[in-house]
């Protein structure tokens, strides 16, 4: 029982932190203003890891490589802790390292896909419940790179925008593929 609780807590903490790191990179990609409360909270939560990396990996106008590498590092630490919780001897970690590196990349992709799903769901719900919410412009700016191409393909039906549903389905299928890939690559099931 302790192992299940520990795995749940680790998964929750690292998924939220990984999502914050990826959200930071995503906000820079869409050029979100840094003075809004969401940007400020994400920056404060991730500065301790991103700022030291930024000295080595400077940011460009559109790609925050330091945040992406930080997410990879977080995923690798998460996987190592999960392997240790599964009972693998620490001396056996060097043998697992190549697999762990690849699964860490897959884990970052899973975090990114989950982030897209949650942002899309949140935007769709707010557009129905409170379209005048101050969060709507932020969510629209974050989801626009994914929804705009779908809006060109999928016409509005009776004034209803179905592109969030299509995006949700596409991302969910990708998430299933990525999760299956991660599970087949490991014996400890991420």
TrEMBL record:
The keyword Coiled coil does not apply. It comes from Caballeronia sordidicola. The keyword RNA-binding does not apply. One of its GO terms (cellular component) is membrane. Belongs to the YggT family. The lineage of its organism: Bacteria, Pseudomonadati, Pseudomonadota, Betaproteobacteria, Burkholderiales. PANTHER family: PROTEIN COFACTOR ASSEMBLY OF COMPLEX C SUBUNIT B CCB3, CHLOROPLASTIC-RELATED (PTHR33219:SF14), YLMG HOMOLOG PROTEIN 2, CHLOROPLASTIC (PTHR33219). Keywords: Membrane, Transmembrane, Transmembrane helix. This is Membrane protein. The chain crosses the membrane at residues 65-88, 100-129, 165-183.
């Amino acid at each position: 029982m302790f192992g299940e609780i520990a795995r749940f807590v680790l998964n929750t903490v690292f998924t939220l932190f990984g999502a914050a790191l990826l959200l930071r990179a995503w906000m820079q990609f869409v050029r979100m203003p840094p003075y809004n409360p969401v940007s400020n909270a994400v920056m404060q939560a991730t500065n301790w890891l991103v700022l030291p990396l930024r000295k080595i990996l400077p940011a460009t106008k559109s790609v925050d490589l330091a945040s992406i590498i930080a997410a990879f590092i977080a995923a690798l630490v998460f996987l190592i802790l999960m392997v240790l919780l599964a009972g693998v001897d620490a001396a056996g970690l060097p043998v697992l390292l190549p697999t762990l590196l690849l699964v860490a990349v897959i884990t970052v992709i899973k975090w990114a896909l989950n982030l897209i799903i949650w942002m899309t769901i949140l935007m769709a719900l707010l557009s129905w419940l409170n379209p005048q919410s101050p969060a709507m412009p932020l969510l629209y700016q974050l989801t626009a790179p994914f929804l705009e191409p779908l809006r060109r393909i999928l016409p509005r039906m009776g004034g209803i925008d179905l592109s969030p549903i299509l995006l949700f389905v596409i991302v969910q299928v990708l998430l299933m593929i990525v999760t299956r890939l991660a599970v087949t690559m490991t014996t400890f099931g991420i």
